[in-house]
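no rush on this but wanted to send it before i forget. theres a chain ive been looking at and ive put its sequence and its fold in token form underneath. i want to understand how the tokens follow from the sequence so walk me through it. thanks a lot i owe you, the record is right below:
>
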Amino acid sequence: MKVLIEVSGSCNVCGLCVEYCPTRVFRVVGTRLSVNQGECIYCKGCEVICPVKAISVRALNDDLLILKRKTLISVK
């Protein structure tokens, strides 16, 4: 899956995304955050953990379909 990871100027390079990311997408290089988008598995955990909401992750695949299912009735 191809993704686009955008990091806004509000990033304070706290490193939480570096510590959290299971595939090591993020790295701190000097005073900046480096992003290896090719390794992203689209878990979006970095968006959730970022204290300043500086990270945005979007899927680029047009054929990606995510279904939300809702239970209509429950049989007991």
